Amino acid sequence: MKYRRLGRTNIEVFPIAFGGIPIQRIDEESAIKVIRRAIELGINLIDTARGYTDSEIKIGKALRGINKTVYLASKSANRTKEGILRDIEISLKNLGVEQIDIYQLHGINDLDTFNKVFAEDGAFWGLVEAKEKGLIRFIAASSHSVDVLEKLINTDKFDVIQLCYNIIETDVEDKIFPLALEKDIGIIAMKPMGGGVIPNPALSLKYVLQKEFVVPDPGIETIEELEENVKVAMHIEPLTEEEKREIERIRKEMGKEFCRRCNYCQPCPQEIPIWVILHADSAMKRLPYQTLKSGWFYDAYRKAKNCIKCGVCITRCPYNLPIPDMIEKKLEIIRVTIGD
Predict the structure, then answer these.
(1) pTM (predicted TM-score)
(2) Sheet containing 18-19: which strands, arranged edge to edge?
């Protein structure tokens, strides 16, 4: 088992990181147990965010008394300099540390957001100031958009990028990976199992791990799934012909209705955040009930109920997905799940 160098940060990490979204759903005692078990098994990079409700707090409590080196990554969706500096202070307090290794601009998914964070009072400059003060070590950004990732990388201002990568979402392989490698930017791969919806998660994780320069960070909720993921990471072997055939089968089966989060379908005339709704299955597997019922996810659900099936999104989708019909199906799943 080889540790992986996270680009120009020169941080050497276990082949997988610990994704901190799902621990929002479990009680504090259970979260602490699974985090400490992860560290015990060798995982030394934990990724979380200000937006993940109490995830940072649970991680901070789990780290008390730990004498192993554990690298921390967090992120903020605040778009202003002052706002992100406030969020960093909160993250430091929650995590119980004086410095966070990697801090990310969270979800830079469109050009408007890109321009906001680089404006004179934009969040990027808050990260620069935080780094100068020693509050963070490395500046990073996460994005679901291949086009925006390219722009972020080309600024040459980021030490790490976080992107979607799994056996279905492979668009980053052609352009983003080579660009990031050229600039020696570390790569963290979110959604290595498609947010929990890919039917063979171990195979999808193994696929992602074939790229030795990528560090996948699967969201982990139980010790059982943690140990399964670590087992895959500890025994990385080339894909067999049978596994390659299985990957193609899954792609054919899921590709007909799998949103890649590229956002080419936007803007929706009804202001529906389409990819959020199309990935509702994943959200409901990972998010706490209160977010599903009253947070940003519920706001997206409320807007989606206004879909008039105008079809504008279909004309823009490069994958020819039947988006209005997919929205209708997801709305019913959400309604049943949250009892709305």
Answers:
(1) 0.91
(2) 18-19, 45-47, 71-76, 100-105, 136-142, 160-164, 186-190, 214-216
